Amino acid sequence: MRQRGVCLPMAQCAQLEPTAITILPMTAPRDRTAQQATTPRRLTIKDVAQAAGVSLTTVSHALNDRGYVDPETRARVKRIAQELGYRPNLRAQRLRTGKTNSIAVFFSMPLAIAGGPARMGFMMEIVAAAAEAAMRRNLSLVLVPPLAGANDFLDGLDIDGAIVIEPVLGDPQIAGLRQRGVCVVSIGRPPEPEPAIPYVDLQTTAMAQLWLTHLHEQGARRIALLVGAQARHSNLETERVYREFVAANGLPLLLRRADVHVGEAAGAAACRELLAEDPAIDAVCVPVDAFATGAMQALREAGRRVPHDVRVVTRYDGLRAKNSVPPITAVDLHLEQRAVMAVELLFEHICGDTRHTMLAGPAPSLILRPSSVVA
Predict the structure, then answer these.
(1) Do 39 and 53 have their domain in common?
(2) Is 0.85 topped by the overall pTM?
(3) How many other C-beta atoms lie within 10 A of the C-beta of residue 136?
(4) How far apart are CA 328 and CA 285, in angstroms?
(5) 171 φ/ψ angles, rounded to the nearest 5 degrees
(6) How buried is 21 (Cβ within 10 angstroms: 0-12 exposed, 13-18 middle, 19+ buried)?
(7) What is the DSSP letter of 262?
(8) Domain total for the chain?
(9) Which of 135, 172, 250, 298 has its CA 20 to 30 A from that of 94?
(10) C-beta pairs of 168-176 under 8 Å, 24+ apart in sequence
């Protein structure tokens, strides 16, 4: 039996099928003799294999969607297993393989940012899609919220793999998980020059270019950037693209960094600083949606009309962007698709298939709203 949390070779991963279930009698037997006569034996994959006329390995691969099985054979094996009433015995599976069939999702951003209003933001959009994808792979999903002290429970968390959302430079969660031998992937490129883990890219470069090109085409010539101070790839890359863009177009550099742990108040304070530095600012690019909400507040306080005086864009198309007055132009990150891709990428690596180290995912698309377009 392997140590829990260690990535399995592909051959062992294919053997993670359950062994048996118990079928209860319809009525209680009157005595022990009757019980022995009426209690059916346990169903195993041997029964499925015999009924389907295939090998045990084929049944294992077909029922667990692993390995190569002809699509017609896979469907037939699943149908026969269902007709026989075969059900997985998860306890037997864990005892035999040492696997928990559980994965976890970790967030490095504070809940006030990742959860959004009513905690239905960025975090929950990813988790909902990831949970559904995990279920299709017979995996349960554990959410580790970004709360103080959550890392203290890391050693006691019995999982086979983990998805880390937008890790920071030298992320302690990744370090702790890898030290335990847990397979880890991330949504969002790790900020290290040479990422040590596989990831699903958020395409931050293309995203930042979308914002800036749109604002410039709308006539903005004093575009400010209000970005997170933490060393995440999305922050670092957005700032790099912004610096190149304003230099290439002969625009002034108007930049502020804010602490995501402070939330909307940090966005408002940074926007006030930008307005004090250059009262002629005519656009603000605010990737963090909580900062965008704060910036909108600061603009109202300063008597600046959005979008007539100052245009505003943000990244995540969540409740903050949609419910703002006016609604804020945002980006479709295709988070549901990326969450599914992350689960599949993690599953591959748990099973020893390490061919893919980066998945690009769908290109981001701009969702235009009144905050950046003058009617």
Answers:
(1) yes
(2) no
(3) 12
(4) 11
(5) -55, 120
(6) middle
(7) G
(8) 3
(9) 172
(10) 168/108, 168/230, 168/231, 168/232, 169/231, 169/232, 171/108, 173/106, 173/108, 176/151
CA separation for the pair 172, 152 (Å, rounded): 11
Nearest-angstrom CA–CA distance, 358 and 336 = 17
Pairing of strands 199-200, 183-187: parallel
**Last residue of a domain, which of 51, 78, 97?**
97
Q: In this structure, what are the phi and psi dihedrals at residue 211, rounded to the nearest 5 degrees?
A: -55, -55
Check whether residue 226 and residue 254 sit in a common domain: yes
H or E stretch including 274?
A: helix 264-277
Note the pLDDT of residue 27.
40
Beta bridge partners of 284: 224, 312
pLDDT per 10-residue tile (average), the chain, 375 residues: 46 42 38 49 83 88 79 91 76 54 83 56 87 90 73 74 94 88 94 94 97 97 97 96 98 96 92 97 96 96 97 94 96 95 94 93 95 91
Helices (H), 189-232: 204-217
Helix, strand, coil percent values for the chain (each to nearest 5): 45, 15, 40
Beta bridge partners of 220: none
CA–CA gap between residue 200 and residue 105 (Å, rounded) = 14
Nearest-angstrom CA–CA distance, 40 and 198? 47
For residues 229 and 261, the answer to whether their CB atoms sit within 8 Å is no
Domain that holds residue 29: 17-97
